[in-house]
């Protein structure tokens, strides 16, 4: 991808500044390997310079672990002198931050080499490399995310989260009733501000539903005919949700499994493909099982799912989310309008047939998650991979768990996958694995409270 024309970008910046004379600062944002948003805050007067020349940030930004420390084994830190690369604005992402007391805007960035070429370790550019393969097939990717999260109290109990008190009743919720409207009412002001804030930022969020745990909710994003933009929406929506909740004296968590006995947070994504010439959905069918393109796409995703798990579930905690009682599929399976499978094909209008991937956790980086799923779809289409018969009924009772159930095994399968390494550069996979292995090593060297409870006075 070449850098967008400066004249076009400057027109966007000048129009925004003219429309928003109150804006004092602009946050320049870039999502790291973990999907954590980092960057710089600049004064209003410097915005046009950013559009003209970009800003410098170190390449090591994409070698940070979950704690923000550089993992030197990636080779992106001291080995290259912690050198800078240049970040340019992403057109269409300049918007106000409705939660700020001092009027502030935000702008999403992407990293490039000093000669203007995309920087290989930016997850957004990792995804772009996969998307380009669909361009070669004459296909447009349509995608939409469903993002789950918990509202939590700003005060933890012994380091553990707890549901926030209702602004209406003053009580902490204990209900696990999915879709319960009364629970939406308890937090209505906060949740409505999230939807209104999304409108201000141009994020296509249209609905919030109560999920199956205390103070757990799901926000749905509209379909977007651009897979990369759909991921931009998911990253920015997560930031919006966190900040709006904080304004209401609450906190949030997108941790995959914050409570041992409750449902985890998932990140489902719906995907369909449009023929660029006709504009028609190639999955469209009155009988989806007979649609060859759909079957092959499903087959490819199922075949690559074990090797994709490290991108879908990238943290130690990610694997605590799985289990039939919490409706998280743990085997490569598919079915028609079946929520017990890993890859659901919603039935309904023929032209709306699509894939819904239901394995990933809300802690996944949307760009890397999307790249892995699209790699599977492309592999299936180009190799005509057949998925086998769809599961009818309860997949948990019919299929033994077979997906990697821990981060170490997931990293090994990713590293060894010939298919995924054809779509995502081995150089990038090496960096990702190095970061996650570093986190895993630190985790395994820690001693948990449970170990003290079990062993300190017993053995």
UniProtKB/TrEMBL annotation:
Q: Does the keyword Magnesium apply?
A: yes
User: Which residue ranges does the record assign to the GS catalytic domain?
Assistant: 123-459
Q: Which SUPFAM superfamilies match?
A: Glutamine synthetase, N-terminal domain, Glutamine synthetase/guanido kinase
Q: Which domain of life is it from?
A: Bacteria
Q: Which InterPro entries match?
A: Gln_synt_N, Gln_synt_N_sf, Gln_synth/guanido_kin_cat_dom, Gln_synth_cat_dom, Gln_synth_gly_rich_site
Instruction: Identify the keywords attached in UniProt to this record, alphabetized.
Output: ATP-binding, Ligase, Magnesium, Nucleotide-binding
Q: Which GO terms describe its molecular function?
A: ATP binding; glutamine synthetase activity
Q: Which cofactor does it need?
A: Mg(2+)
- Domain GS beta-grasp, by residue range, is 21-116
UniProt record, GO biological process: glutamine biosynthetic process; polyamine catabolic process
Entry similarity comment: Belongs to the glutamine synthetase family.
Q: What is this protein called?
A: Glutamine synthetase
**Which source organism does the UniProt entry give?**
Pseudomonas matsuisoli
Q: What is the phylogenetic placement of the source species in the record?
A: Bacteria, Pseudomonadati, Pseudomonadota, Gammaproteobacteria, Pseudomonadales
